[in-house]
Amino acid sequence: MNSASQDATRERIESALAEPLGALGLDVEAVEITPAGKRRVLRVAVDKDGGVTLDDVADATREVNRVLDESDVMGEQPYTLEVTSRGVDRPLTLPRHWRRNAGRLVKVTREDGSAVTGRILEAGEESVALEVTGRRTDLPYSGVRKALVQVEFNRKGTGAADGADEEGED
Questions:
Q1: Which string of b and e fits 12-41 if b means at least 16 CB within 10 Å?
Q2: What is the pLDDT of residue 163?
Q3: Could you give the CA distance from residue 157 to residue 95 in angstroms, rounded to a whole number?
Q4: 44: which residues sit within 8 A by CB, 6+ positions away?
């Protein structure tokens, strides 16, 4: 499958899944198709406010299977389906990503190449407020080149934003 065909298939899958997964309260965050010998691996990443549970992944897997079984979007070639949560290794690219990670530590590379690490205080539609070395810093999303959540071990504090993240859960 060439790159243009793969991109078109990925877009068709994303489009077909958006409404049924939305009815479950889930957002489709990524669809990836990778070759694996004579098969393909279809990986669908989902997310929602408050995080994704194993039950959410199971429900999403059933719904993705149903939608794909009712369509011809994957063609005749066999594939393996994996439904996962978004994960901390994916860049924050949309306002909802920032909002869902409030209280977490992020490393931001700005458009000018400089980097800053801070804790997400609040996220709006156009910008994010970070706590950087004890001071509030407002960054417009348009000034962010890349942003990644930083994994923290043994984080001190018990504020509401800490939640289960201290244990490394997503």
A1: ebeebbeeebeeeebbbbebebeeeeeebe
A2: 40
A3: 26
A4: 13, 17, 28, 30, 31, 60, 64, 81, 82, 83, 84
pLDDT tens-digit readout, 110-169: 999 999 999 999 999 999 999 999 999 999 999 999 999 888 876 655 344 444 433 344
Residues 6+ apart with CB under 8 A from 123: 95, 98, 99, 101, 102, 129
| Cα–Cα separations (whole angstroms), residue 27 to 14, 15, 16, 104 | 10, 11, 12, 20
Distance CA 134, CA 161 (A): 16
At 131, list the tokens.
């706590």
Concatenating the DSSP letter of every residue in 70-128 gives TS-TT-SS-EEEEEEE--TTS---SHHHHHHTTTSEEEEEETTS-EEEEEEEEE-SSEE
